[in-house]
Fold these 3 entries.
Entry 1:
Amino acid sequence: MSEQYDVIVAGAGMAGSLAAGIAAKGGLNVALLDRNPEEQVGKKTNWGWVCGDAVANDHLRFIKEQTGLTFSYPALDQHVDGVYAISPDLQSKYIFEGEGFVLNRPEFEKKLLEFAKKSGAHYVPQFEVEGPIIENNFVTGVFGKSKAMEHKEIKAKVVIDALGVATQLRRKLPENQYVDKDVDVDDLESTGRYIYDFDLDHEDPMFFDRNNALIHLNQEIAPGGYGWVFPKKGMRVNIGIGVQKRSLQIRNEKLGKKDTLHSLMDEYVRTNPVIKNPRLFNADNNGKGYWSVAVRHQMESLVYNGYMGAGDSMAMPNPISAGGIGPSLVAGALAGQNAVRSIQNKDVSISGLWQYNLDFNEKYGKKTAGLETFRIYLQSLNNDVLNYGMKTFLTAEEAEQLSYGLVPELHLAAQFKKFLKGVSNINAFSNLVFAVRKMKKLNVIYGKYPASPDNFAAWRSMVSKELGEVKERFKPNPI
Ligand SMILES: Cc1cc2nc3c(=O)[nH]c(=O)nc-3n(C[C@H](O)[C@H](O)[C@H](O)COP(=O)(O)OP(=O)(O)OC[C@H]3O[C@@H](n4cnc5c(N)ncnc54)[C@H](O)[C@@H]3O)c2cc1C
C-alpha cells in the first residue's frame, strides 16, 4: 500500500464506496478504508447492516444519472409504491414518500464496492480508522490499525469521512466554527429492527402491506419516534422502532413502566395482529440489530481544511423519516466530484472545498432544518392530539408537502381553526402554525446558504437562533 494518496475515503458504506468510485473515475489516486472484511462490506457494527432498508427511487435515479450505476434484484429486494404514515388510532394515514424499494442491504453494498474497485479505488479492508492526522489546522491523513494490528499513518490531500454516525474523524477535528464535533442526544433516535419470516394471520393493510412501507406514529409504542413494517420479498418483513431517549424516559415515568428499546420492539412485533409465528431471518447474522440515527439538519458545513464528510458522519438522515440512504448516496456522489475539482484546482482548504456545501445544499440539504422543526413539533404531541391533528389540521396534500420539506400555506386548516375542539388541540394547532412559519423562515435562510466561508458565521447564527426558538417552544411530551 502506498502511504500517500490524493484522497482517502474512510468507511466503505453507502456514502463511502460511491465517493471513492467517483473520485477514482475522475482520475484520482484513492484509498478506501473500512474495518470490515470484504465479504461483510457496509456492515455498520457487530449487529449487522442495521437499517429499515427503504429508499426512494428518486435517489437511485440520481445515482444513475451521475454514474450510470443501475441496480436490480437481489440488491433491490422489494418494490413499494410509497410510504404511509399512520395515526395512533389507525384512522388516518398520509402518504409521505413516493415509489421506492426495500433493499437487500448486504447485496446493495457489494454492488457499490464493486463500482469503487472497478473505477480504480484501492480498497483496504480490515483497517480500523482511529483518527485524523492534523497539521497546521489541515487534515492531512488518518491513523489507525491495519489488519495485522499495526499502527499505520496514511496521508492524502483530502480525507472524506464516511464512517457513519459514530465517526472517529469528525469527533476528533480541531475546535472550529464549521463542523460540529458532537450531536445533541435529543437529536438522536435509538433504533432497532428485526428481519422476520412469518405466517400471515390475515390481510390488514394497516399492519402489513405487500405494496407499501408502513410507519406507525404512536407515542406509547415508539415515544419520540415511530414503528415501521417494511415488506421484503416473500413472507419476510423488516420491522422495528426508533425512540428518542428523553421521550422514552418521560413516557416510562408517566406510565410507571420500565420499558427499553428492546422490550418495545418485542411488544411492537407481538401486538401486530397480522404477523404470526415470526422466525428470525438471520442470513449474514443480520436478523436483529440496534444502532443510532441522527435526526437533525446536517452539519452546517460539511467541509474543513483537507476534510469532507458524507452520510451519517454528517447527520444527513431526513429528520422526520430518519431515511439516510438517499442523502448518503447523494452526498457520496457530490463529495467524490468535488474532491476531484478541488484537487485539480490545487486548493483543498475550506474555501477550496466550499462548493460541496453549495451542491449538497441545493440537491438535498436546504430542507432539513425545516424538517427538523417539524420533527421537534411532532415530538411535542401525545397520541390524542396526533389522532385529532391528523384528522383535522392538515389535508393529505399539505402533509405530503411538509414531508418533502415544502411549506404549505395551511389555508384550508386555518379556516377551520374556530371549529377545533379541546384546549390541547387548539394549542397544538397554534403550535403547528408557529412551526410552519419557522420552517418557512429556515427554508429562506437555507436558500441563502453562504457562497463562501466569509459569511458563514453570521448565517450560522441565524440558523441557531431559529432552531433555538423552536426547541424552546416545543418540549417532548409523549403522554
Ligand atoms: C435501525 C435503522 C433503520 C434505518 N432505516 C432506514 C431506512 O429504512 N431508510 C433509509 O434511507 N435509512 C435508514 N436508516 C439510516 C441509514 O441506514 C443510514 O443513513 C445509512 O446507512 C448511512 O450510510 P453511511 O455510508 O453514511 O454510513 P454507514 O452505513 O454507517 O457506513 C459506515 C461504514 O464505515 C465503517 N466504519 C465505521 N467506523 C469505522 C472505523 N473506525 N474504521 C473503519 N471503518 C469504520 C462501517 O463499518 C461501515 O462500513 C436506518 C438506520 C437505522 C439504524
Note: The chain has 14 helices and 19 strands.
Entry 2:
Amino acid sequence: MTTTPIEAVRLPDPYPFYARLVAERPFAHDGALGAWVAADAAAVRSVLGSGALRVRPPAEPVPAGIAGTAAGEVFGDLVRMTDGEPQRRLKAVVAQALGRADTERAGRLAAAFTREALAGGGRIPYEELMFGVPARVVAALSGLTDGADAEAARAIGDFVQCIPASATPAQQQAAASAAARLRELLRPGIEAGGTGPGLLAELVRAADGASWTQRAPLVSNAVGFLSQTYDATAGLLGNTLVALARGAAAVPRDARAAGALVREVVRYDAPVQNTRRFAAEPYRYGDAKVEPGEQVLVVLAAANRDPAVNRDPQVLDPGRVNPAVFTFGAAAHRCPGENLAAALAAAVLMTLLAAGWAPADLPADPAYRPLANARIPLL
Ligand code: HEM
C-alpha cells in the first residue's frame, strides 16, 4: 500500500484503500507513519475503549508551541484534550449542556444566517456556509450577537490552526490572540450564572448541579464548543453537497429527508476521518503490543465501512436502520455535539435547496483541504 491513512483523508475516493486496510490490516503497525493503525470496527472500538491509551502524549499534554499562552490554557482545559477523573466529571457537565442545546433554534439560526450569506447574489459563498454559519450559530447559542457572533466565528478559525502537530509558530501566535479574545467574549456569559436560556447558562447549570465550581475551565470548554464545531461541521455539510453532486443520493424534499441524508453522510463520508491515541501504558490487541510512548491512528472512516458491522457499507443509504457509526468517536471521549451538528448541516442544506441550489452547481470531484484528519472539500 503506497498511500498512508493520513494522505487518504484528501483523496477523491479514499474508500478502496480503507476497505483494504479493514480486510488485510485491521490493526497493524505502519512504518511510514510511525504509528499503529486501527481500521476495522472491532479494533477501533477496542482502542477507543482502552484506558491505557490517552488523547495526548503523556509527556506533552499541551503542544509546546502554545504552552504558557491563552491558547495553551484553553487547550489544557478541554475535555477533548484531557483524560482522568477531572475530565470525566467535566465531560459529564459538557455533555449535559450540549444535550440540552436547543437544536430547533440552532436550525432556525442556521437558516437565517444562510439566507443572509446568500442575499448578496452571485457565486454561492460555500466557505461561509460551511465554516462561518455553523460557528456563528454556536456563538449565538452562547449569547454572542450583534456582530460578536461573526467575530467569534473568525477568531475560532484562527484558534483551530494551533491544534494540528504541524502548526507553524505564526499560526500558534494567531491562535493565542484568538483564544484570548474568545475568552473575553465568552467569559461574561459564564459569569452571568445559570439563569436564562442558551448554551452557557446550560453549562453553568450543569456545573452547579455537579458541584463543579471552577469557572475558567467552563470558559475554555465554551471556546471548545466553537472549535469542535468548526472543521467537523464544515466537512459534514461539504461532504453532503458533494454526495449530491456525485448523484450518490436523491435530493431531499423535506427536512426529515435532509436529516436522514446528513446522518448517513456522517457514516458514508466521515468529516472526521481519524483521531489519535497515545499509549501511557502497554496496550494489547490480539498478538500486537503497543508500548508506552507509541501512537495509534484510529481510522473512524474505515470502521464505518466495515462489512462486519454495516451491510453493503459502500452504499449511501439514508434509510439505514441502526448503522454502526464511528465518526463521533466512542466511549469516554464520544462527541456530545452530534445532534447539534446534524441539525446545523441539515438546516443549511434545506435553505440552500429552497434558494434554488442544484447539485449540478458543484464539481463532482473537488479537491480537499490538506488536513490530516478532517475531510473537507474545497468548494
Ligand atoms: C459533524 C460534526 C462533528 C463531528 C464529526 C465530531 C466528531 C467528534 C469526535 C470524533 C470526537 C472524539 C475525538 C476523540 O475521541 O479522539 C469529538 C469530540 C467532541 N466533540 Fe464533536 N464532532 C462534531 C461536531 C461537534 C459539535 C457541533 C460540538 C459542540 C458544539 C462538538 C463537541 C465535541 C466535544 C465537546 C468533544 C470532546 C468530548 C470528549 O473528549 O470527551 N462536536 N467530536
Note: The mean pLDDT is 97.
Entry 3:
Amino acid sequence: METLNQPLVVTDLHKRYGGREVVAGISFALARGECFGLLGPNGAGKTTTLRCCLGLTGPDSGSISLVGEPIPARAREARARIGVVPQFDNLDPDFTAAENLLVFGRYFGIDDAAIRARIPRLLDFAGLSSKANAQIRELSGGMKRRLTLARALINDPDLLVLDEPTTGLDPQARHLIWERLQGLLAEGKTILLTTHFMEEAERLCHRLAIMDEGRIISEGTPQALIAEHIPVSPSPLRPSNLEDVFLKLTGHELRD
Ligand SMILES: Nc1ncnc2c1ncn2[C@@H]1O[C@H](COP(=O)(O)OP(=O)(O)OP(=O)(O)O)[C@@H](O)[C@H]1O
Ligand SMILES: [Mg+2]
C-alpha cells in the first residue's frame, strides 16, 4: 500500500510569510526505511517545510500525507506515531532529564510503567545514563540536544523527523548519534533530517534534496549528486565531496 511504503508524501507545498513565499512549491516523498536529507543554506525553508509536514504551521497550498494521515487535518494522530527533534530544544525546565521523558510519554497516552521501563534504555541511547536526575538547567547544550533525541523515541516511532539533530554536539557526541541513527535505520526506521554537516548527510542519507529559496534545486543520492555536479575534484589533494556540490549549487554568498 502506498501509504505504508511512503511514510511522508509532500506535493507542491507552498508557504508564505508576510509577502514572501518561503516554501515555493516543493514535492518529495520518503520511502520506508530510508534516510532522506533536506539540505540548504540558512533561511532556505527547511524548518518551515518540516513544520508544515508536522501540522505545526498551516501550508497555503499543496498536500501532505504523513504516516498515511492527511496534514493538517489529522496532524495530532500522525504526530503520535512519529518522533520529532525540533531545531531548538523545548525541554521542560521544571523537570529532571528522566521526568522529561516521563511527561512526554504521558502526552502520548503511554502508561507510566511502560515509560519507566523505556527510560534507562533511552538515556543510555543518548549517553546520558548518569544524568537521569539532573535538572535541565544543569545540562550542557549538547546534553540537552541528546536528551531531545532520546525523547523523540519515547513512543517507539517508525518515522523520525530531525531538524539539525547534531548541531551543538562535540565530535564525540556527534559520532555517537550517527552510530545510534544508523542503528535505528538498521532496525527499519525511516528518518527525515536536516543538517548543515555535509559529512553527516553523506554518511547517513540514502537520498538528499538541496533546497534554496524555498525550492528543491537538486535531488539524488549523495554519490549521484557529486558525480553529476562535481565530476572533477576542485583540489588534486582530495576527491570531490558533498560540500563542493552544496557550494556550487547554492553559491558562496551569506544569506540574510
Ligand atoms: N514564523 C515566521 N514568521 C515570519 N517569517 C518566518 C517565520 N518562520 C520562518 N520565517 C522565514 O522563512 C524563511 C525560511 O525559514 P526557515 O526557518 O524555514 O529556514 P531554514 O532553512 O530552516 O534555515 P536554518 O538553516 O537557518 O535553520 C526565512 O526567511 C525566515 O526568516
Ligand atoms: Mg531551520
Note: The pocket of magnesium ion (ligand 2) is lined by residues 46-47, 87, 163 (CB under 6 Å).
